[in-house]
Amino acid sequence: MRIALTRSGGFTGTRVRVELDTAGLPAGEEQRLRDLLAAAELKASRSPAVRDAFTYDLAIEDGGRLSTCRTDDSAMNDHTRELVDWLLEHAPRV
């Protein structure tokens, strides 16, 4: 499975992109990521007129199937926040 996350916007308008291929993860970390993905309710959700919020674009390629999602800080649920935080901490920046 390959995952790409792009965080953009915020107060300074910065952009961060991370990419991860689960084939390179230790078994425990891969399972943790799969658990986070299963718990996250990945659906497009944006709040109107939220100034200085980060926007997150997530792309997941698994078994030839591509899933995408766009959300922002104020519309994101707790499970999706946990997934995003994990990716920003563990995935290499590109």
Considering the chains and any ligands shown, give keywords for the structure.
2 helices; 35% strand; 94 residues; four-stranded antiparallel sheet; alpha+beta
Describe the overall structure.
Strands 2-1-3-4 form a four-stranded antiparallel sheet, with helices on one face. The radius of gyration is 13 Å and the shape is globular. The protein is built from two helices and four strands, in the order E-E-H-E-E-H. It has 94 residues and is of the alpha+beta class. It has helices at 27-39, 78-90, and strands at 2-9, 14-21, 54-62, 65-72. It has one domain.
Envelope shape: globular
Please give the share of residues in helix.
25-40%
Estimate nothing, just give the exact number of structural domains.
1
| Sheet with the most strands: spatial strand order | 2-1-3-4
Beta-strand percent range:
35-45%
Secondary structure class reads alpha+beta
**What is the rounded Rg?**
13 Å
- What's the count of strands? 4
Main sheet record: 4 strands, antiparallel
Mean pLDDT: 89
Number of helices: 2
**Ranges with pLDDT <50 over ≥5 residues?**
none
Distance between the termini: 17 Å
**Secondary-structure element pattern, one letter each:** EEHEEH
